[in-house]
Write a structure and sequence with these properties.
This protein has a 4-stranded antiparallel sheet. It has helices spanning 2-7, 13-35, 38-44, 65-82, 86-103, 110-123, 133-137, 149-169, 172-175, 178-185, 200-222, 224-245, 250-256, 264-271, 289-305, 317-320, 362-370, 372-388; strands at 9-11, 145-147, 335-345, 351-353, 393-403, 408-410. 53% of the residues lie in helices and 8% in strands.
Length: 436
């Protein structure tokens, strides 16, 4: 039965159109990062980037070579769009994008993580079988169908993203508008809508509407009677987010996924009328089906488990951020903080207070003042810097952080030398003080 569901062939118009949109968005994301100054601010200006744990070896290319890196990603995005050497281009873009994702986390964004997952999934898609340069080079590969899993792998992925996005919003600071007020306060300067965004009734609508939208949009798109309503709600929701929060390509990528929810006939008529429509419904089970099903199930089990790992770690994830990343916790909290790093020479006992601006960019300073993992990494960085000067040091941090506009409270135990404690990826670090 699973074979019939996964390997039944359906018309591939939705996948072909999605490939074109996806490749274009990958191109725009890559070159846009250059022209908006994001690459310079995040990759070139910093002396050192805060990579993901165990990826400290992964640092930006020297000088201005990161511009070439992003141009190359943009080229592979165009190749995906055009279907030119598609498999190689999809693999190359995935590897390069994963590199930039794990390379730094000062500008961490769930959407960067999602794009890494999606580009990886696109590697295995038969998305170059029509309207591609690969078909022009080799007409024998043309096909008008795709296995049903090609659509459902995206549907399941987005169901996980949206569902966890909805569940994660159900907590006091979101429900009582603390988070929304902080988020909207920074939008006061917006022309025409700045004052409107400060209205309590609108903030309630956005807070509770966000929960309902995330929780219901995928099921409603799957039901024929509610599909159009869900689509128009998606258009409003994502265009609003694009305007207010400037979240890059994500709103448009999310709208592109709607291609897989509408009937194959509808997508074919709207976008690819000249393509023969496939309606034979063959079930073609490949020889490697058992391997595919194992990988398919394993991937989605991991996707289901990663976002709940924080429940098995002591403390409030909003405060400690242990288990925060890769968990679809999008714009759920606002943190502000101050941190003082005190370096003590173990031999002389001399103390120095670190001037953060001598080592970090403004964006990095924000992370090194509010995020425990970044604070720990910067302590290790300071140890290495002083070690190169022949000094053996201890690093102590005094920090006070405000969560969602609340009172400033200590985040890090100031009596602990952070250079002596290991990072614990799967359990609570006791040097992170509890919020209460």
């Amino acid at each position: 039965m699973l074979n019939r569901f996964l390997f039944k062939h359906i018309d591939n118009s939705a996948l072909i159109v999605f490939r074109i949109i996806f490749g274009l968005l990958c191109f725009l994301e890559s070159v846009g990062a250059i022209f908006t100054g994001w690459v310079k601010i995040t990759m070139i200006s910093p002396q050192h980037t805060f990579s993901f744990m165990d990826f400290e070896w992964l640092q930006p290319l020297p000088g201005y070579w990161m511009y070439a890196y992003y141009v190359l990603m943009g080229v592979f995005g165009l190749f995906i769009m055009l279907g030119y050497r598609y498999r190689f281009s999809a693999v190359a873009f995935t590897v390069l994008w994963a590199g930039t994702y794990f390379m730094q986390k000062s500008s961490y964004n769930n959407h960067y993580y999602l794009l890494m997952l999606l580009s990886g999934l696109m590697v295995f898609q038969p998305a170059n079988k029509y309207l591609s340069l690969d078909v022009k080079r080799n007409p024998s590969i043309v096909s008008y169908s795709m296995p049903r899993w090609s659509a459902w792998i995206f549907i399941l992925q987005m169901f996980i993203v949206y569902t966890y996005g909805s569940i994660n919003k159900i907590y006091p600071d979101w429900l009582n508008l603390n988070v929304m007020k902080v988020l909207m306060q920074g939008k006061k300067h917006y022309v025409l809508v700045g004052n409107l965004l400060q209205e309590t009734w609108l903030q309630y609508f956005l807070a509770y509407g966000g929960i309902l939208f995330d929780g219901l949009v995928i099921p409603l798109l799957l039901i024929k009677k509610t599909r159009k309503l869900a689509f128009f709600a998606s258009v409003f929701f994502h265009l609003f987010n694009s305007f207010v929060f400037q979240v890059g390509i994500f709103p448009y990528l999310s709208l592109a996924f709607c291609l897989f929810f509408f009937s194959q006939e509808t997508i074919h008529k709207l976008f690819l009328k000249r393509k023969p429509f496939y309606d034979q419904g063959e079930v073609i089970v490949p020889k490697k089906a058992p391997i595919f099903k194992t990988l398919f199930i394993t991937y989605f089990v991991i996707q289901l488990l990663l976002p709940v790992r924080h429940y098995f770690i002591k403390g409030d994830v909003f405060w400690t951020e242990e288990g925060h990343r890769m968990s679809w916790r999008m714009m759920l909290r606002a943190k502000h903080g101050l941190a003082t790093y005190i370096v003590v020479d173990k031999n002389s006992g001399k103390q120095d207070t670190i001037r953060l601006e001598n080592y970090l960019t403004p964006k990095q300073i924000r992370s090194a003042s509010t995020k425990p993992d970044v604070i720990w990494q910067f302590a290790q960085r300071l140890k290495n810097i002083y070690s190169e000067k022949g000094q053996d040091i201890s690093v102590f941090v005094k920090s006070r952080v405000s969560l969602n506009g609340g009172k400033y409270k200590p985040l890090i135990d100031p009596t602990i030398d952070l250079t002596t404690v290991p990072w614990e990826p799967f359990k609570h670090s006791d040097w992170i003080l509890p919020e209460n």
